[in-house]
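Running this now, will post back.
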Amino acid sequence: MTKLTKEQFEYLENSLRHIDYGSILITVHNGKVTQIDATEKRRFTNQPNQLQTVSNKS
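Update: finished.
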């Protein structure tokens, strides 16, 4: 059974509290957590009447 350190647990808990859409990947090597990746997804709906252009004026 893999055990989390206090730091790992707190990071995982914080990630879960703040993510609305996305994924959290926990990497385990030799029975120990070596990495935690949190990826948040942002989805935007573009409606034709709300599109704005961005210009780069020099």
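The chain has a mean pLDDT of 87. More later if anyone needs it.
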